[in-house]
Design brief:
The protein is of the alpha/beta class and about 280 residues long. It contains ten helices and five strands. Strand 2, helix 4 and strand 3 form a beta-alpha-beta unit.
């Protein structure tokens, strides 16, 4: 079993550039029924994790980085759709304003780190500097290199403060990225997901590859390693990431009292009022 796990981990690290690893054909797409069944089981475990985090005062910080169209948003939604937003907090910061640009780079991110009893999920994080900012020219190479030198020290301090820091990189193949971005153009429900920056970034696949490689080289540390998830199959990718996340936090099921609904009070002298309610049209 240990050898199989090591082989899977080796394939994951070797396959960061989009290879399936080991010459193995990818598994067939996962059907919706099987996906929902497995996701339901994982949601139950996420609720257990939530209760454990609240009870113990644990602090968990999860970073999601990756290619445009790799499925970060869908993965985060799958994680959070059955838990409390008061415990699982999603942070997706907009572009920095003029005041934030004048601050120390990490300053705008630090206030969002988790306090006791919180799980904070960054939908893109301080690693913007190592990726989009570097590739698109929003910072200089010198600024990006300085960031890569300094961020391990900051992350080490975050970990030593008691935060469980977990970093995921979602990798998608060039062909699948093209398909998904084209789908955003064609589907009126998804067109809002396609920003002008996505279009500018699309042609710079290998610039992003070089930036990613430099980021891994500088910041893949034992105290805060990167974990690679291949997400050409979105459903399998989400299940794999949630399963991996749960395996990296030593949570336990919190004992709770049996829940029984109390008896509903009697109506007594209450009567429904004859009021002209403005009811919505029942079109469905």
């Amino acid at each position: 079993m240990a050898q199989e796990k090591k082989a899977r981990d080796d394939r994951a690290h070797k396959g960061a550039g989009g290879e399936t690893g080991g010459g193995l054909a990818p598994p067939p797409p996962l059907g919706s029924r099987a996906y929902e069944q497995e996701l339901r089981k994982l949601h139950i475990e996420l609720v257990k994790l939530q209760e454990w985090v609240q009870r113990t005062g644990a602090k968990v910080c999860i970073l999601f980085e990756g290619r445009d169209g790799a499925g970060k948003g869908g993965t985060i939604k799958a994680i959070t759709e059955r838990v409390s937003p008061r415990v699982f907090r999603v942070v997706a910061l907009p572009a920095p304003g003029e005041r934030e640009k004048s601050q120390m780079y990490m300053q705008r991110y630090v206030p969002h780190l988790p306090a006791a009893g919180e799980v904070v999920i960054f939908d893109r994080s301080w690693y913007n500097r190592a990726g989009v900012e570097r590739v698109m020219g929003f910072c200089t190479d010198e600024e990006a290199d300085r960031f890569l030198q300094g961020v391990p020290l900051i992350e080490e301090a975050i970990v030593h403060s008691g935060v469980k820091l977990i970093k995921y990189w979602l990798e998608v193949s060039a062909e699948e990225q093209t398909r998904r971005l084209q789908d955003r153009i064609d589907d009126g429900r998804k067109v809002w997901k396609l920003s002008p920056m996505d279009l500018k970034s699309y042609s710079r696949w290998y610039d992003y590859s070089r930036a990613r490689d430099a980021m891994f080289e500088a910041t893949d540390k034992e105290f805060a390693p990167w974990f690679i998830a291949h997400t050409d199959d979105k459903r399998r990718g989400r299940l794999n990431i949630i399963s991996d996340l749960l395996s990296r936090i030593p949570y336990e099921q919190v004992k709770r009292e049996k829940i029984v609904l109390p008896k509903r009070g009697k109506a007594g002298d209450y009567q429904e009022p004859d009021y002209p309610y403005r009811r919505i049209a029942e079109r469905f």
